[in-house]
Amino acid sequence: MRLRRLWIRHRNKFFIAVLVVLFIVVIAPSKSISNILKLEEKGVIYVDGERKKDYHDYEYMKLEALQKGPGEGGASATLPPELEKEKDEIYKVNGFNGRLSDDIALNRSLKDIRHPKCKELLYLADLPNAAVVVPFHNEHWSTLLRTAFSAYNRSPRHLLKEIILVDDASTKDFLGAKLDNFLAEHLPIARVVRLPERWGLIRARLEGAKHATADVLIFLDSHTECTTNWLPPLLDPIARNYKTAVCPFIDVIDFENFEYRAQDEGRRGAFDWEFYYKRLPVLPEDEANMPQPFKSPVMAGGLFAISSKFFWELGGYDPGLDIWGGEQYELSFKVWQCHGVMYDAPCSRIGHIYRKFAPFPNPRTDNFLARNYRRVAEVWMDEYKKYLYMRQPGWLETDTGDLSEQLAVRERNKCKPFKWFMENVAFDLAKSYPLIEPPDYCNGTIQSLADPKLCVDSKFKGQFDRLDSLGECSQSSQFQFQLSAFKDIRPLKSHNCWDVPDLKDKHAPVLLFGCHKGLGNQMWKYDMMNKMILFGHPPSHCLDSSVTTREVFVTTCDMNSPTQKWNWSFVNAERLRNYDTLDPKP
After folding, report:
1. How far is Cα 77 from Cα 258, in angstroms, rounded to an integer?
2. Would residue 362 count as lying in a domain?
3. DSSP 547
4. Are 526 and 568 in contact (CB under 8 A)?
5. Global pTM?
6. pLDDT tens digits, residue range 405-462?
7. Are the beta carbons of 101 and 258 closer than 8 angstroms?
8. Count of structural domains, the chain
9. How far apart are CA 279 and CA 159, in angstroms?
């Protein structure tokens, strides 16, 4: 009787409870369920059925905003004049302003230059942990440590398992016991692995990867700085598919004043048919989807993340690649052709010091670069390798060494042909970098008619690589140029072009700058009838010289000036007659 009375009194509440449960479990769509469910744990929420999290360390960001001192916020800094001599001495052995770096905090703050939407993005709550691998050879003390501290300070503690610094036979004393002791006291998560002799960048990375125990390998250069929330955007795509490599956006740390600034806001990695790294535009659908990760055919080089499992399935780097060069192509081709995918992640930004000059001598006497390139071509590029050899026939004379291990990697993983890569991944590469380039407009020597024994000398000189001299004419490569199909002038077989960025001076200098095939301040034309080399679009200035000082420069065109008259040793008259109608971007 008592149970019956209770049932009668509370049956309406029971029916209501049952209806609510049925609604949540059976009737409500999955999105409604995810919205109804509240926080499972601190900082974790369900979004479309996925457990996600905001990984920003807001407390650390607040502390950074209060920091004061040289270079804080990524601002440029300077040294007082009395330190100029000390600065120069350190500059010579680093290729950047190491003395200024020493005055900047190891944990300096950086401005947040990410896409605004990056601040709102959430990442999977369950991400793999990572090992950061940093190879170095005679790296400067403060830049090396700033690399390690920036990676550590701006990473969630549970996601960064270890930092492995790989010493490639450094000779600087402070990179020995002093470094070990400093890390043990201030950054115990980091340790140094020392190589017995100079192995080079590629094998140093490989050795560091062998010592790593984390789920994901992240390779950084030894003079970089990781920015706010840099790590989760690299790990999230790998958590979804372990056959994935992810590259950050690489920003610029100025080698002179250490200002942190953007390099660009995203372009896809590529190459030309001499294995120079190039960039392709972001696809329209990726531009519309910014700042989500987008697919990229080729990585820029030394800054990327890859799952340890996938890296070793691919055989790691080819251990037959020596010192540096070619490794970015080898690993990129392997990732794509062996059923993986590669992304650039706009919300992960890392700054890099591009040295003013390379301070280290070549550690080899042979042409290791040609051998590296040929090893990559022979293993991965199939019939497309012939387009490399068309431009660099000397590579065919290089002994590749044993390729059996690398060919076995390709067979074991049932990797796709290079034709598939070109048609499905780098499908627009040949539009910008044709398999067979159209012929030059002119090439050979550029002879001065004011003094026919003098020719333009391709040895660029001075702080900004200025073309500033005529020399005694010769058929040597030093005096060979080409007015290419892209309407630029470059030393023969070079990827640096004549560039005139400023016409304010009466005698504007001609600089050597990376060819961008974008016309503008690299556009030149040869006037066959008047023997003049015209600059600009429309042409407003001409190449001129002083036969007395042997200086070469650009100035206002003067049809009557003999110093503005030039003879090319080869002229393609038919192409020059059609110069104005030919597209410089085949």
Report:
1. 7
2. no
3. T
4. yes
5. 0.78
6. 999 999 999 999 999 999 999 999 998 888 987 888 998 899 999 999 999 997 765 4
7. yes
8. 4
9. 31
